[in-house]
């Protein structure tokens, strides 16, 4: 059996029995303390709402922001936990890690995001408190999305402790770049093409570059999918695809703002599907489709409309964005990913470069152009002010200037992703985090109690008297059933 | 190995590397041009909404139709992509095609539907434009549903190009019959018993009849399910079942109209489950249940309440409809489907006759009867006018006349389904669409790069020295792991 | 082959071809009759709503309760059918029973619940009718949840007829204890820590205790999961987890009440995930995680906040509750479940003691304490009255008294669970319900037509001339493909 035991040798110590519980406990206790000091209900979720209503002459409870945003929030919530989680289950033996670690880091990340975003965006100067409501929950989920995107690049190659560290710093960086882009530059980015996708994409890619594994081919047998893991991944794809209109509209203006963002995103994504299928089919000799493209590139349109979804990009404009994103993203999987891996030494498990980084940059550019091209004749005088929030310090800003700041915002998100990723990657390179050996990557058995393999790789030892003992090569367990072979 | 290569012979050319990309690209470009010419945001999704609000004295953004319909829209959206997509994954090796082609044709269909329905229902005579909002998106999804129903009849037997052609014509026919039924006949059909299910059902069945394959038994090994494919299908079943109240209420009247349609559909579907289980259990010697029935017939009540859901059918009336639909649909699977296949030469992969066509007709009849039986004492004077929209040209219509027009509407939907299906079926019979040979039906390998089979059908070649080479009969790949057999 | 036929011997008669259809038909007909006599649309779902609006000076349709509660209702609906259904699919060969019987009993239960809850809570004394609207549907789903929890304890060990009987009595008991707790004691329990989870948990555990099977080890080979069944279960886990904020807020007060319940539950559940992971990792030598814990204990926080979610427990308070629930629930799986089975003879398939019973009791206690600690300075004068509904007969109740009644409510739910479970368990012990033999527990083949096993346990008979006939040991079918072995 010597030959097969090779698969199970461990050159690295992946014991996380100390680090994982300690990190979870200490960080969760820290969260409780910080929440105790800083976080309070906002006036729409506090029992004093009845007084606020009377004071502000609000006639109906339905005016509570909850009813404007809760359905969208729940859709976003599904995208974060089921969408991202299941999209990554495509690997044949890393589905537990995909959906389980996604669950873990999102649950931590959203707490930390409420604090970080609160400090930067909504710390009340008088009371020193952060007041949260449903919009805060959406923003926390958004912030987490950036880190889950980054997880896609390192899927299967890191330990859960590394993922938690990556999320801690990712959320922190996110809150800062978001503050710069949205508050200082006053750029618009409701669906986060720049803030979420570009940042998250480059953050993950840079970390993956720092953690480059030259001998990753040793776990080649675990890369790739099996039939049913591809179908599980389609659950993730579809929930992301269907609910992306909610993602891009969740925090846009009440009324026409949310309404328009939904229409644009819906159309853009539909268009993306057709060009993804076209390019995928072109890439194979007999026109067969590749599940990797269908699972991922069909979503690129949603990413690329993250900034412009609330603008008057017009329905056909949304279709055009989707048209090109499907093409570019699919060609990314065919041509760019191999190039990144071979030449730039970036191992990108889920191809986040093609699904998030590149479409995110496209989205930033589309946003800058459509902002610069906005006009009072199309938007109406008040409509223009509302859409770009040309109020307060920014009431004299022109659309051309706005376009420039949008472009500047995109550069900020790239810089934060690359520089932040390089620093965090270096931290994650320390040999204390329990990451798996090259030959054990993409294997749930490293961090999970795995019951039984889905597919049996069997070893038969046929005994002289006709029986046979059967070993399972994946789990090394002797199967319960002894096969009977009568010769 | 000669015997096994038989499975992989191809008498037909299934190379779609030219046709599929061309169709996708050309049609998508056509969509962009037509959208550019015709489609605009409606007044509730345009930045001028702020002016509309002031003009119409609307006090709150929550009055935007978006907030009345968006949660229902998202539920419908899930039904279209996850519901229909996963319901069809029950076949052991056609789940990629089920969920993937469903994704493709729905994405194309909804764009084409926005145009077709716009031209027929909401083309502004002055500007020549179609103004879209959230209700348009719901209607587009509805229109697509008709084509996805039809897909169920031909699942596994057609190429994606054929499906796109079927969708192009299906959406076109749908928009016309819908215009005749809803606008000219002024019939009510909020949940589409007639317009969606009856039309879609007969459209698909007729196409399947035209494309009859006498030698389909050659792919018998691929028909039927495996354990996990049946569970995937239950994801589709449940999301359809749970969200059907949203489907039937998505475009009904604000307020009590949506509220009542939800209650009726919820009750009707619950009742259907019990009688489906009863008949399914009766059909087996030991009372065992059949997954095919549970996956499909439990939904028949939702179909059959598509017309009457918004009427005052009363809670027990809804239960009665569900009661009979569960019985009839399940008996359809047991008795009628085999009859259709053997005698009428209609091969209906998903049994859409039992789930959509027959319950759709029942729904039309129930709608006609309940409309004819409506009375001012039950509905109230204004309630009756609102429910049946007895305004404008139709302000003098009686409920009896309305019942007659409802019945006429049902006939229109059947005629459009059968005649349209016959014509489209003939077009699809042309030998240019890349459809699979009889022995390759229900097999994802024809149109998809398939990674690895879920279940191994193995061929052992035991070598003289004790090793063995193992071939995988489904994918014809040599397995990576060479089994070792020590005799 | 004699040795293997052992697996398929049946000492018990599991033929349910008579009982199951009879129960389904008779009960469904009874529902129709009772609905005909008692159930009517309420004024917000009746066509007379247009008159109600005018009479009550309601200016907009959006004031209809439908728009406050429908999104939450649909989330709850998903939890009941997909959440509970898929959570129980973890067993390797009982997924049909998990998701299918869950579907059946929930569909029956919600009808019966509308009647039972109607009679106890909203029977109009003048007309003798029950008027239903969207809130009634939510409450019916809630009531069903109690029975589905109980199903978790007996999963795989009972027949569908037994489950229907269990649901009939479960719903009945639920309506009575709910009436006592909410109406007579005037306790608050919007998310049902006591009314749903504590009752359902003890009801199921007591039934399982009465139905104790000393020889359950005979079906040991069917206990436990396979890789993909664990991923299916995660679908259930995540939909429960994501939508739990909707569960706890679905019937709370309009406005801040729903808003606050969402925030509290969202935070509490996030905290639970981290401590669950920590304890799960601590429980294994190398820090590996156990899927059972991740699937179940991560949800304990939602259960424990069922009572207090609408209170001003404050964000950090919610985090603290989640913190301890994750620890206690996971330790329950590690230590208490084995103890219950060995010492107390309670076989709890899904560990509902750790997910529902124990966290439910914690939730009752948390509710009592936070109610007793409520103050006008935190809630505001009117806020306090609104939150605890100190109106009518209860307008002079103090928060301390309220805390006492909350605690009393919890005792009521435990007593109803245990006593009711003992009685119903005795009824279910009658040898007429078609329950499976000990060696056939956890096996879908008893009640379902099962197509093909997911994993093959093969029996080879190698023939003299080199061929081999392969038998499938699970399904006893001869495989279609005859392996060829060349020696």
Automatic annotation (TrEMBL), chains A, B, C:
Transmembrane regions listed in the UniProt entry: 20-41, 73-91, 98-118, 130-151, 163-182, 194-212, 224-243, 263-282, 294-313, 319-340, 352-374, 407-428
Start and end residues of each Ammonium transporter AmtB-like domain: 64-446
A Gene Ontology cellular-component term: plasma membrane
Cellular localisation: Cell membrane
Keywords: Ammonia transport, Cell membrane, Glycoprotein, Membrane, Transmembrane, Transmembrane helix, Transport
Membrane protein topology class: Multi-pass membrane protein
Pfam families xref list: Ammonium_transp
GO biological process: ammonium homeostasis
Role this protein plays: Functions as an ammonia transporter. May play a role in the elimination of ammonia in the gill.
PANTHER family recorded: AMMONIUM TRANSPORTER, AMMONIUM TRANSPORTER RH TYPE C
Family the entry assigns: Belongs to the ammonium transporter (TC 2.A.49) family. Rh subfamily.
Name of the molecule in the record: Rh family C glycoprotein
Organism of origin: Oncorhynchus kisutch (Coho salmon)
Annotated gene: RHCG
């Amino acid at each position: 059996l010597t030959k097969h035991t090779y698969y199970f040798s461990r050159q690295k110590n992946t014991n996380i029995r100390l680090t994982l519980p300690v990190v979870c406990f200490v960080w969760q206790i820290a969260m409780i303390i910080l929440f105790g000091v800083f976080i309070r209900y906002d006036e729409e979720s506090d029992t004093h709402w009845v007084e606020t209503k009377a004071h502000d002459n609000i006639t109906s409870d339905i005016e509570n922001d909850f009813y404007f945003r809760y359905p969208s929030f729940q859709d976003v919530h599904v995208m974060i936990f089921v969408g991202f989680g299941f999209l990554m289950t495509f690997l044949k033996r890393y589905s537990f890690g995909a959906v389980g670690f996604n669950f873990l880091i999102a649950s931590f990340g959203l707490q930390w995001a409420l604090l970080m975003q609160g400090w930067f965006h909504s710390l009340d100067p008088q009371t020193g408190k952060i007041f949260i409501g449903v919009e805060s929950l959406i923003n926390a989920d958004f912030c987490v999305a950036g880190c889950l995107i980054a997880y896609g690049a390192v899927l299967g190659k890191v330990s859960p402790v590394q993922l938690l560290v990556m999320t801690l710093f990712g959320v922190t960086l996110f809150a800062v770049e978001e503050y710069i882009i949205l508050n200082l530059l006053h750029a618009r980015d409701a669906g986060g093409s720049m803030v979420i996708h570009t940042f998250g994409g480059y953050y993950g890619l840079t970390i993956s570059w720092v953690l480059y594994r030259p001998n990753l081919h040793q776990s080649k047998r675990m890369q790739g999918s099996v039939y049913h893991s591809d179908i599980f991944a389609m659950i993730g794809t579809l929930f992301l695809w269907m609910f992306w209109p909610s993602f891009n509209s969740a925090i846009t203006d009440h009324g026409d703002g949310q309404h328009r963002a939904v229409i644009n995103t819906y159309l853009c994504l539909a268009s993306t599907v057709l060009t993804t299928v076209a390019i995928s089919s072109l890439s194979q000799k007999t026109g067969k489709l590749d599940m990797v493209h269908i699972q991922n590139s069909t979503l690129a349109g949603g990413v690329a409309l993250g900034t412009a979804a609330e603008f008057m990009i017009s329905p056909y404009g949304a279709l055009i964005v989707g048209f090109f994103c499907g093409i570019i993203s699919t060609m990314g999987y065919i041509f760019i990913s191999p190039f990144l891996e071979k030449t730039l030494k970036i191992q990108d498990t889920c191809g986040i470069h093609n699904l998030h980084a590149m479409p995110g940059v496209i989205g930033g550019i589309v946003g800058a152009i459509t902002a610069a091209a906005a006009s009072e004749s199309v938007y109406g005088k008040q409509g223009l002010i509302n859409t770009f929030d040309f109020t307060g310090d920014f009431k004299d800003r022109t659309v051309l200037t706005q376009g420039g700041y949008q472009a500047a915002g995109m550069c900020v998100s790239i810089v934060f992703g690359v520089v932040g990723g390089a620093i965090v990657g270096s931290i994650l390179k320390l040999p204390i985090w329990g990451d798996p050996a090259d030959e054990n990557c993409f294997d749930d058995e490293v961090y999970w109690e795995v019951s039984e393999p889905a597919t049996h790789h069997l070893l038969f030892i046929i005994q002289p008297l006709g029986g046979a003992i059967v070993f399972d090569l994946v789990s090394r367990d002797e199967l319960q059933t002894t096969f009977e072979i009568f010769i």
